[in-house]
Write a structure and sequence with these properties.
single chain, 645 residues, alpha/beta, Rossmann fold, 6-stranded parallel sheet
């Protein structure tokens, strides 16, 4: 998707996604290097920067193979004196944690900002995680905007803070910030900055973290930390408004909820609001100045009670006795997202007001249930179907170890072929452990996507070969990082800026790591898939070694987009009702969302949903499915080879 608004004319006010506003702010500061691994809710930051790089020829932007590599690259760039940024979702910071902690000791001569897009409420994530704790643990300051409106200026302030102290800064966004559209007034893009080239200057004492050097740097780091705290007490992103002996500390997005709650309760001028957008390290002087005059303090922050907890420690050290409210003991919930109703109720309790939450609007519309399913024409559906049949024929009891991607939907009926889902690359890792401790008729099957394979699957695969783990690895190669919006990866051969890159071959990589049994199949060919999966499972049972099958077939949405660009049409399918016996195999066991049962139980196809994949024609034992028009060979090729453009 093109994000043209990121290049809006200076001085104009345009509607922007919060993530695009972050990208624009980085360009206005003059970011020269931007790296990332796609992950909701962070993806659009780098997509917008990628679009800018294509149009302007700068800055350098890349989709890295994983978050650790992205951060290492950004650190390397910052060590040459240029501004760099690495963006990722909150769980990606776990992957990048190793270099993150070390760069806190080293510092950088150029600005370095690490964007962590947290996901309170787990809208698209496997956990709720507040990455401000990383700032506390790694001695890295955290900047947290008070909403999408402030995101552009806040990212600029994050770069300035990093530049001033020659120290990395974490920029903490959340789903509501990144995925809200707001009017943003834009300034000049720093063209000279984004085209800047760096020069590495040796500093062995600082950049080589052997113990003798790291011990000295640790002392400097702790001293610098206190100075940064003093500096943040006067930072322009923090301010106070209103008056009264009740203090509401609104942290980041919590400030917006606090301000609206005060307004809703009619407490303007009676309650003091302290806005904090630099939560780590605590702006101690600023906080103490206003806490000393308060009888009660309510902390409103998205995620964990980070500022609340740190503040209690500060109050204790300073001998300050004040009643503190927030998330640790209530009245604000510790789980899920903040919302205005809960914050208003909490504030009313603190100030002693009777407050009845307005009744929710009643909507009498009864909507049909829409459980999440794989798209019509998704190659994963055919693979799941073939794999399940093969496991039955091979007489094994499979343990399906899933991973992070669209194929996570395989956890739902009718397939239910994801027994574990933990983290990126976890499918192979968990299968390794299971393979050595279960009976021979139980065979672990690791199901992993192509982008995830390059992200975190290679170390697990090397371990499986080294330890001769009897397991089947199925790599679902749909030619893109589909779940986050069709970004390229090392197996695609297209870079973030749309330039040709080296296309790494998954099967070749597996053979290079020592896997003896490697097969590549057509993901859309169900009979071939069933045969090859059967043979692979027999190999695992008999040889007690790992086998790997690459199921290759493009994401159907990507294929359709490619076909439209090339002017290639696909034909939909229909049901020959004379042949259909109403067995329900297609809409129950195969569960294609384009197929439904008529009143007579016979199958019908919704031509609007049908993508022309032809999978239904393969599974029907009565040949009841047929194409409406002649099937195009060009379309069949695109289905198997489409890639991001």
């Amino acid at each position: 998707m093109a994000w043209k608004e990121v290049l809006a004319e200076p001085g104009s006010k345009v509607i922007m996604l919060g993530n695009v506003a972050i990208a624009r702010g980085a360009l206005e500061y003059g970011v020269s290097y931007a790296s990332a691994y796609p992950g909701t809710p962070s993806t659009e930051i780098t997509e917008a920067l990628s679009y800018a790089a294509r149009m302007l020829g700068a800055p350098y932007v890349e989709w890295s193979s994983n978050e650790k590599v992205a951060l290492e690259g950004a650190i390397g760039a910052a060590l040459t004196g240029i501004p760099a940024m690495a963006s990722m979702k909150h769980v990606g910071v776990n992957v990048a944690a190793d270099p993150l902690f070390s760069v806190g000791y080293m510092g950088v001569p150029g600005a370095l900002v690490v964007v962590s897009a947290d996901d309170p409420g787990m809208w698209s994530s496997q956990n709720e995680q507040d990455n401000r704790w990383y700032g506390v643990h790694a001695y890295i300051p955290v900047v947290e905007p008070a909403g999408a409106q402030e995101a552009k200026e806040a990212i600029i302030e994050a770069f300035k803070l990093s530049e001033k102290w020659e120290h990395p800064v974490i920029f903490r966004s959340t789903t509501r910030i990144g995925h809200t559209r707001v009017p943003v007034e834009v300034g000049e893009i720093n063209m000279e900055g984004i085209r800047r080239r760096g020069k590495f200057k040796k500093n062995i004492d600082r950049y080589t973290l052997v113990p003798a050097h790291a011990r000295k740097l640790r002392e400097e780091l702790v001293d610098k930390w206190e100075k940064i705290s003093e500096h943040l007490s006067e930072h322009p992103l923090n301010w106070v408004e209103g008056d009264g002996d009740v203090l509401v500390v609104g942290v980041g997005l919590g400030y917006r909820y606090a301000k609206e709650a005060v307004k809703r309760l009619g407490l303007e001028g009676e309650v003091k609001i302290l806005k904090i957008s630099t939560p780590v390290p605590l702006p101690k002087k600023l906080l103490l100045k206003h806490a000393e005059r308060a009888s009660k303090i309510l902390f409103v922050e998205e995620g964990d009670p980070v500022v609340e907890t740190l503040s209690k420690s500060l109050f204790y050290d300073e001998g300050l006795h004040v009643r503190v409210y927030g998330k640790e003991r209530g009245p604000i919930k510790r789980t899920g997202e903040l919302n205005l109703a809960n914050v208003t109720e909490a504030l009313a309790r603190v100030v002693g007001l009777d407050y009845a939450r307005p009744p929710a609007a009643k909507v009498e519309i009864s909507l049909p249930p829409r459980p999440p399913v794989l798209c019509a024409g998704c190659p994963y559906r055919a693979v799941f179907y073939a794999l399940r049949r093969a496991a039955g024929k091979a007489r094994v009891r499979p343990v399906y170890n899933g991973d992070i991607g669209c194929y996570s939907l395989g956890v739902n009926p009718p397939f239910q072929m994801q027994d574990t889902i933990v983290e990126m690359g976890g499918s192979i890792g968990l299968a390794n452990g299971i393979s050595h401790v279960v009976d021979g008729d139980q065979v672990p099957i690791a199901i992993i996507g192509d982008s995830t394979f390059f992200h975190a699957g290679l170390p697990g695969l090397a371990n499986a070969v080294y330890n001769r783990s009897p397991m089947l690895i199925v790599v679902l190669d749909n030619r893109t990082t589909a779940m986050t919006g069709h970004q390229p990866h090392p197996g695609v051969g297209v870079t973030a800026s749309g330039q040709p890159g080296v296309e790494l071959d998954i099967a070749q990589a597996a053979r290079g790591l020592g896997v003896d049994y490697v097969k590549v199949i057509d993901a859309f060919n169900i009979k071939e898939g069933e045969k090859e999966f059967y043979e692979a499972l027999r190999y695992v049972k008999e040889k007690r070694r790992p086998a790997l099958v690459v199921a290759r077939g493009a994401c159907i949405l990507l294929a359709i987009a490619n076909a439209r660009r090339q002017g290639v049409k696909y034909t939909v399918y229909r049901v020959n009702l004379d042949k259909c016996t109403a067995c329900g195999l297609c809409y129950r066991a195969f569960n294609c969302p384009a197929i439904y049962a008529g009143d007579d139980g016979k199958a019908r196809i919704d031509p609007i949903l049908c993508t022309g994949c032809g999978e239904c024609a393969q599974i029907c034992p009565f040949d009841a499915f047929e194409p409406v028009d002649e099937v195009s060979e060009e379309w069949l090729k695109i289905m198997r080879t489409a890639k991001p453009i």
